[in-house]
Inverse folding.
């Protein structure tokens, strides 16, 4: 039986269908979780997709944390449930305090929409299993507020405690400085994705779900989705046997 | 009470209704005078924007029949079947005047408006393309407009979650006072979900949902889009609509759900003309009438006069005809999406739009008088007495045709073209858009036509926009025909079959005979080209009065084309693919540099002319390239357009990172063969063993074809030879420049930085 993975849909979510499709490709059973519902329908993991949750006119993700579904997601996370936030989903998690750091307006003060490369920092987390440390994975970014920020003490702690999951890397594979084009938003220490201390909640700005098929220019995001689903399957005791082998 | 009191001019004139038109209005009201509310409704519906009163006679000459056409002109968007029970809906529309006044909101609501035209038909929007035209990039006002429009397009499109996959950004001095913002949207629908904008069934409820109605955009279409206006007129700012992309996102989801569940009998978005337009058009199409209860319309603010409610262009609203038994379900859907919804009237059988306030009827107009029976003007067309402008004082007087022969390094010319404002990479703009949301974008903006896979099938849709104003300025027939030729060619070179054409006709004041001649010639060129290529025109929009204090724009027919590729595995792109592939030149350069980017740099010779277009040749080259691709012979295919052969092959090289070495036979002059923009030419590559077969196939289609070199190395080398000559350069005579040789890296460098430099975005 395929593992059930919830995809939260806020009225302004616009990557929910893409996320559902990527989960389908991996062999999971995507379950849509409407923002007004409190029940998570017994899913094994939750994905918060990209978009503009409630319009995001104030600040990305700031209202979404008060929704019924997010109260349940926070409880779920508190019990150790796996949660992945992508783009706006990452912003919602950061606003909710479920992952460290803040996402500020891009350094350019402009929306950025193009392909970047991000390299996994670890390969032993629920979100990066099987990935090669330091190897750039190509996938798109598309956001206006994605500049990862935390004070220096917090940044040091995140690095020390292994909470940095992904870094933007330049063509040579080196972490991209905030003023380098390969760092699309000026993120401090080139951080593209982080997780909480417990290791069960993670967020990243780039879109692995849009890079899950060769026909779309890259399938290098597939491994992140697969890692989440494998971890979810393991968590509910289904084992990795249900996992699909890959995209077309 | 009058709409505006204490004015000397009669009300109808202040609303833009002429004395003759007032007479025509009386004739449609059985001889009585319209009251103020009725007059306001007529003024909006009889505006150029809503009524097409000047262009209608011309538009009737366009070919509209074609294979698979399910909905054509007159509907919100054209719809063409693509098999598997699916259909594609597409349309292009202008938002020029609002963008000139307030670039961010003008562009944003332009995107919102065209998206509504798509999902009103029951189609989920899957892509947007923006064709943007501005004045001199050095002008601070241009920079302000570019920045605002780009942010507006992105701010709206990125939020609603529809990818921006293509478009154009063109600079021409004629747009200095009047930028063009044309937006094309594409949607995908199950054919059985096709929903028309009609209000059938007397007794049905008329339901308004989406945003509330306010004072924004009062008479936007009639005030802004239907009259010439002066720069920066602040009095027109309240006429610009304000966009709310989050509301639009909700509207998309709610509308598609209502259609999917069969809860609406007809659906119409509210754009120009607001509630007046939506009710009269849907009633007229269904042969019914509508009784509107003014008090039931949800307002954004108190104190709105009836005429304000009836003509407000508040954005993000939809109007549906609903069976009474479906009302509760409709309300539930709207509630769930957080959208205000109200029953604002009933479908009647009397054919009238009647407005009731506090139980009293305050207006009654036959629906058809506002729409299909609106006034039509026979405008006077006259060609200009000077068909060819003399060069401006101080303009270069060299005979541009000869420049490289006079010692100019053609490599330097190529670099100058690649770095120019119009030919350099648009990525500094496109990267401000989300081009990949939806996870269907196979080829996004910046490198030829956009390609979107059709999820769940092997198919792909290929789309592009093209418009030619630089030739159209001199010969509006040719400018329009060239625009169609280039747009369809850009689709055909991917292997896709063009399905249909949508158009946005941007012209000047139709009451000026010369401007109306430009429009009528443009429509004739559009019709001729579409007939020659066997394509239907499925809809579009006409934007007139594109004039400002600095004069009229160059006539600009903006052409949008959607094509269908049956098997995405056969898709061919423009970039070189593999080292050692053979490079073929298909077609032959014709003389004429007027209107080319080269002439923009080098100046125009007074005796020169634009290049000619042979529509039969164009049809043949498109048939040829589609056949060659379907046979699997072609590795890459690039069309020759802006910047000529030199820029075309440079793009193939830059986009692949592979160099090339070719010999180009000079049939006319180095300038014409290297940089001329005569149409109906392609640069193809193929595995060397297929070159002979490709040449043969081209000749079978009656096309000149020659293998001119091969892919490889890290430099672009173009050796110029006399046609037929094979010897060393010295033997061919001194006038032939020896060769052009530039590292691909250098080409890329100038190309990538040109636009940002032109706009002052980087030093």
């Amino acid at each position: 039986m395929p593992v059930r993975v919830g995809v939260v849909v806020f009225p302004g979510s616009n990557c929910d269908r893409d996320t559902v499709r990527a989960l389908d490709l991996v062999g999971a059973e995507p379950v849509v979780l409407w923002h007004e519902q409190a029940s998570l329908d017994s899913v094994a993991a939750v994905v918060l997709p990209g978009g503009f949750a409630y319009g995001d006119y104030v600040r990305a993700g700031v209202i979404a944390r008060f929704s019924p579904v997010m109260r349940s997601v926070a409880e779920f996370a508190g019990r150790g449930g796996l949660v992945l936030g992508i783009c706006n989903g990452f912003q919602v998690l950061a606003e909710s305090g479920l992952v460290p750091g803040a996402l500020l307006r891009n350094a350019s003060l402009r929306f950025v929409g193009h392909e970047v490369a991000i390299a996994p920092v670890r390969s032993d987390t629920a979100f990066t299993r099987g990935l090669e440390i330091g190897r750039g994975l190509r996938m798109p970014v598309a956001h206006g507020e994605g500049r990862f920020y935390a004070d220096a003490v917090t940044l040091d702690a995140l690095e020390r405690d292994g909470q940095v999951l992904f870094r933007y890397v330049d063509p040579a594979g080196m972490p991209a400085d905030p003023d380098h084009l390969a760092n699309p938003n000026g993120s401090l220490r080139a951080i593209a994705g982080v997780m909480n201390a417990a290791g069960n909640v993670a967020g990243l700005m780039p879109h692995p779900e849009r890079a899950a098929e060769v026909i779309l220019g890259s399938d290098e995001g597939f491994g992140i989705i697969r890692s989440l689903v494998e971890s979810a399957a393991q968590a509910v005791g289904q084992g990795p046997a249900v996992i699909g082998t890959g995209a077309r | 009470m009058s709409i505006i009191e204490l004015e000397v001019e009669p009300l109808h004139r202040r609303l833009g209704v002429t004395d003759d038109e007032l007479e025509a209005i009386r004739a449609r009201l059985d001889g009585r005078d319209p009251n103020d509310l009725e007059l306001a409704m007529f003024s909006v519906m009889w505006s150029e924007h809503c009524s097409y009163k000047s262009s209608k006679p011309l538009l009737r000459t366009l070919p509209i029949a074609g294979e698979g056409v399910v909905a054509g002109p007159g509907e919100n968007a054209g719809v063409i079947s693509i098999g598997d029970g699916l259909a594609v809906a597409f349309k292009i529309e202008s938002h020029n005047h609002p963008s000139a006044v307030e670039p961010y909101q003008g562009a944003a609501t332009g995107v919102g408006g065209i998206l509504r035209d798509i999902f009103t038909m029951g189609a989920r929007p899957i892509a947007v393309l923006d064709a943007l035209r501005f004045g001199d990039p050095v002008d601070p006002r241009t920079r302000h407009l570019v920045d605002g429009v780009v942010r507006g397009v992105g701010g709206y499109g990125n939020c609603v979650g529809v990818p921006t996959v293509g478009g154009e950004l063109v600079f021409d001095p004629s747009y200095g006072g009047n930028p063009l913002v044309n937006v094309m949207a594409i949607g995908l629908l199950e054919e059985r979900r096709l929903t028309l904008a009609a209000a059938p069934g007397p007794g049905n409820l008329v339901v308004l949902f989406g945003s509330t109605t306010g004072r924004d955009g009062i008479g936007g279409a009639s005030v802004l889009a239907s009259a010439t206006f002066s720069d920066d007129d602040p009095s027109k700012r309240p006429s610009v609509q304000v966009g709310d992309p989050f509301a639009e996102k909700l509207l998309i989801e709610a509308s598609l759900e209502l259609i999917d569940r069969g809860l609406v009998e007809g659906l119409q978005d509210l754009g120009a003309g607001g509630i007046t337009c939506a009710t009269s058009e849907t009633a007229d199409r269904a042969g019914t009438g509508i009784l509107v209860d003014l008090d039931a319309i949800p307002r954004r603010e108190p104190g709105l006069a009836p005429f304000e409610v009836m003509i407000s262009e508040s954005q993000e609203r939809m109007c549906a005809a609903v069976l009474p038994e479906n009302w509760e379900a409709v309300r539930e859907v709207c509630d769930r999406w957080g959208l205000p919804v109200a029953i604002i009237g009933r479908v009647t059988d009397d054919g009238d739009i009647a407005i009731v306030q506090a139980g009293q009827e305050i207006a009654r107009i036959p629906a058809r008088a506002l729409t299909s029976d609106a006034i039509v003007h026979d405008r006077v067309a006259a060609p200009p007495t000077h068909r060819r402008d003399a060069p401006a004082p101080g303009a270069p007087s060299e005979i541009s045709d000869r420049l490289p022969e006079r010692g100019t390094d053609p490599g330097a010319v190529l670099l100058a073209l690649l770095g120019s404002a119009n030919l350099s990479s648009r990525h500094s703009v496109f990267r401000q858009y989300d081009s990949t949301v939806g996870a269907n974008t196979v080829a996004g903006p910046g490198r030829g036509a956009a390609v979107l896979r059709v999820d769940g099938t092997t198919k792909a849709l290929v789309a592009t926009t093209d418009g030619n104003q630089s030739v159209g300025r001199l010969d509006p027939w040719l400018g329009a025909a060239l625009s169609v030729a280039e747009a369809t060619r850009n689709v055909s070179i991917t292997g896709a079959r063009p399905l249909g054409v949508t158009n946005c006709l941007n012209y000047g004041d139709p009451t000026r005979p010369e401007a109306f001649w430009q429009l009528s010639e443009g429509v004739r060129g559009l019709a001729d080209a579409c007939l020659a290529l066997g394509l239907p025109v499925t809809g579009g929009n006409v934007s007139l009065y594109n004039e400002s204090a600095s004069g009229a724009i160059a006539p600009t027919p903006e052409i949008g084309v959607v094509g269908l590729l049956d098997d995405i595995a056969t898709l061919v792109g423009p970039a070189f693919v593999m080292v050692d592939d053979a490079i073929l030149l298909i077609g032959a350069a014709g003389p004429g540099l007027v209107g080319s980017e080269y002439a923009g740099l080098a100046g125009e010779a007074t005796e020169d002319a634009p290049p000619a277009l042979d529509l039969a040749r164009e049809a043949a080259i498109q048939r040829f390239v589609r056949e060659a691709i379907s046979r699997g012979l072609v590795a890459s295919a690039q069309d020759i357009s802006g910047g000529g052969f030199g820029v075309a092959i440079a793009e193939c090289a830059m986009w692949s990172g592979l160099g090339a070495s070719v010999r180009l036979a000079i049939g006319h002059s180095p300038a014409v063969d290297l940089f001329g923009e005569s149409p109906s030419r392609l640069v193809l590559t193929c595995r060397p063993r297929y070159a002979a077969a490709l040449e043969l196939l081209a000749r079978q289609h009656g096309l000149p074809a020659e293998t001119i070199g091969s892919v490889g190395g890290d430099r672009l080398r173009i050796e110029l030879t006399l046609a037929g000559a094979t010897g060393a350069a010295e033997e061919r005579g001194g006038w032939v420049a020896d060769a052009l040789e530039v590292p691909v890296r250098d080409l890329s460098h100038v190309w990538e930085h040109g636009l940002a430099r032109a706009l002052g975005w980087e030093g």
